[in-house]
Design a protein that fits this description.
With 333 residues, this protein is of the alpha+beta class. The chain contains eleven helices and eleven strands. The protein has one domain: Bira Bifunctional Protein, Domain 2 (BirA Bifunctional Protein, domain 2, 2-Layer Sandwich), CATH 3.30.930.10. This is EF-P lysine aminoacylase GenX.
Length: 333
């Protein structure tokens, strides 16, 4: 299929995409958010162990070469803006990740809506998610209203796995559970990897319309620890039909704790044989200047897939390629 044929064959899905991009902006403007732009080109990328930023080389007018990276998220720049005094901001932008699948549920270039609120927490961000989904539903024909179930991670494990997650919050206990279930974990495997052996097989496929909150502390990423749920972090993910749509935090505002986590992630990248990068100390400083905040990153392409499937199309929109004008599979294969 050539480029023009791909666009023609997927016009019904692409037309939904253009509507949703407009509606996303309308929703956040109606909530008095400011739309911001941040650099796509960075000197220092994120430290996430399982993400691979796209490396590139650029030159100044004198021919001096510099190594840069395309951002995997606008998060670092947006948090610097929060530290500088911005309060309610959103960014609708392209992000890039190397070593991603070409098609299915992934594309190396994809669109993300990321937003933050200061003087807030992750429960307010949950309200935003519900508000955004229902705003879009009310504006599009044939779209049903979304009723999200807010489910504690502990309750999900009890419901779908039949165990009390509180008893499996250590690497040793989770390793034993994986062995018991026949997942054949490797010696020295990290808690997060063990957790996902069970979660991805026994829980995620069953999450219909769920906001899954309070992840174990080992999986906090850039979230702060819960003050009321010992052993858990203020992190949630949004699932629809077993597909993860968004990832959110009650944001960490402790600069030293953030530095410690980055150092641990740096070590993890080394262990995985991935490229390692210097830590963005400007970001560490910004974290310490932030007030209590909540933030989230939501995959727009997957959101479009979801709504396109509800718009009277002949079949559900199963492949992310269908909602992209020219996906990587068409450009490079």
């Amino acid at each position: 299929m050539n480029h023009v044929e791909h666009i023609q064959n997927n016009k019904v899905y692409l037309d939904v995409r253009w509507q949703i991009l407009r509606l996303i902006r309308e929703y956040f403007w109606s909530e008095n958010f400011v739309e911001v732009e941040t650099p796509l080109l960075l000197k220092l990328p994120g430290q996430e162990p399982y993400l691979s930023p796209m490396r590139l080389q650029l030159h100044d007018e004198n021919g001096t070469a510099y190594t840069g990276f395309l951002h995997t998220s606008p998060e670092y720049a947006m948090k610097k803006m929060l530290a500088a005094g911005y309060e309610k901001i959103f960014s609708l932008c392209k992000v890039f990740r190397d070593y991603e699948s070409f098609g299915g549920t992934h594309n190396p270039e994809f669109t993300m809506i990321e937003w933050y609120r200061t003087n807030s927490d992750f429960y307010v961000i949950m309200d935003d998610v519900e508000g955004l989904f229902n705003f879009i539903s009310n504006k599009l024909p044939s779209a049903s209203k979304f009723l999200f179930e807010r489910m504690h991670m502990r309750d999900a494990w009890q419901k779908f796995v039949g165990v009390n997650l509180n008893e499996y919050l250590t690497t040793e206990k989770m390793f034993a559970l994986c062995e018991q279930k026949g997942y054949k974990p490797a010696t020295g495997e990290a808690y997060e990897d063990l957790f996902y052996r069970v979660f991805l097989n026994e829980i995620e496929p069953k999450l219909e319309t769920v906001i899954l909150h309070h992840y174990p502390k080992q999986m906090a990423a850039l979230a702060k620890m819960s003050e009321t749920e010992i052993g858990y972090a203020e992190r949630f993910e949004v699932y629809v039909g077993g597909l993860e749509i968004a990832n959110a935090f009650g944001e960490l505002t402790d600069a030293q704790e953030q530095l410690k986590r980055f150092q641990e992630e740096h070590k993890k990248r080394q262990e995985l044989g991935k490229d390692v990068f210097d830590i963005d100390m400007e970001f560490i400083e910004a974290v310490g200047k932030m007030s209590a905040s909540g933030g989230i990153a939501l995959g727009v392409d997957r959101l479009v897939q979801l709504f396109a499937s509800l718009q009277g199309a002949e079949q559900a929109c199963q492949n992310i390629d269908s909602v992209l004008v020219l996906p990587a599979s068409k450009l490079f294969n």
